Amino acid sequence: MLTPEDARARAADLVAAARRAGADAADALYAGEASTQVQVRLGALEDVQRSESEEIGLRLFVGRRSASVSSSDLSASALAALVDRAVAMAREAPEDAYAGLAPEDRLLREAPPALDLDDGIVPDPAALKARALAAEDAARAVAGVSNSEGGGASAGRTIMALATSGGFAGAYALSGHGVSASVIAGEGAGMERDGAWHSSRHLADLEAAEAIGRRAGERAVARLSPVKFAGGAMPVLFDPRVGGSLVGHLLGAISGSAVARRTSFLLDQLGKPVCAPTITIVEDPHRPRGLRSRPFDGEGLPTKPGRIVDAGVLTGWLMDSAAARQLGLAPTGHASRGIGGPPGVSTANLHIVPGSVSRAEMIAGITEGLLVTHLIGQGVNGVTGDYSRGASGFLIRDGAIGPAVTEVTIAGNLKAMLLAMTPADDLERRYGIDVPTLRVDGMTVACG
Length: 448
Hints:
Layout (H helix, E strand, L loop, with lengths): L3 H17 L4 E17 L2 E19 L2 E7 L4 H17 L32 H16 L4 E20 L4 E17 L6 E9 L8 H14 L9 E7 L1 H14 L2 H6 L19 E3 L22 E5 L2 E2 L6 H7 L7 E2 L7 E2 L4 E3 L6 H6 L3 E9 L9 E12 L2 E14 H6 L1 E3 L9 E2 L3 E10 L1
Parallel strand pairs: 7-14, 13-18
Antiparallel strand pairs: 1-2, 1-4, 2-3, 4-5, 5-6, 7-19, 8-9, 8-13, 9-10, 11-12, 14-15, 15-16, 16-19, 17-19
């Protein structure tokens, strides 16, 4: 795997070769990754995996015609053939009036922010095995746990580099560490499964394996003996581990491509209230050690902190350059690239600002409701906002969390759900999208 400096140079050399071969514009993306994963089950080593990969992608333009190609062979001869093939493909491609690189006057020209994303630790399989065993042992020690699906630990490092013919070239390194456990509680037809995991950029920030395992065991035991209930219209609380999915649906609806295609349930809502006034969604791509921090986007534009939703009001669309041209607007620094194909959009380190009421206080005011801890299926219509998903969790009765429930369906419309959403004060930074417990009143709940 190349160093960041060598990866940046390799991407820039590929862009220069594309220009010499007749491309009017080009960009190249390098991704190198090395990772080690250890899996244990019932106290014994089950699997050790080591993977290393390098790949480079080239996107080039001949007029308004473009082509994207990629290769895992980084030899000079392979890259020369890659360039020739891409130029030939582009000349035969249909024209796209909105195709092209990011505007040169918007590219990142200054030194990127220091985000401390790489701790430089080389994975130690013995240490990974010890973490995986500690997580599983702690989970199996919880009374009521009857079996295990295993414990896991991983560590790795990724190098990303991007160069464009507009004059941008940048690279950065990312480390990653993770621990997980999944166990089964109960016996026979009454068995229930659950788990827990945590990941971090720096090993020093990784939660203790014993705490992760204990949480997995306690979650599995809590799911035992689920009950049936009548259902109906009621408040639904989304636990923080699933509440981020609501933000994800909103992000899909405000992507520039969805707006340009007019396939968004939030069309014509720019600058208008799309959430309750208690909801502010903040993005911070420059958070040190953040799971989704990045110094520049997939087109070489600078990233910047901001508010996606401010006191309920939608502040802007998320746009790469192609969508921005189609809408007659400017790109927003949210472009996201894979090795092959054109950019899409993504965000970095989102969170909902916590509210002023505790989760316990939020629950205390509910006569009958549902606390959702798991969501199943993808029953969301991005055009209309219609929402219907399988769920499981816990019944809320008379202001207290009651028995477990499974095979539940929750339904509503995202427009109304977002406007009825209330945040608790229990925000923690654990994922790429962090939310406190979210209460949504008036949802339709059915128990199978």
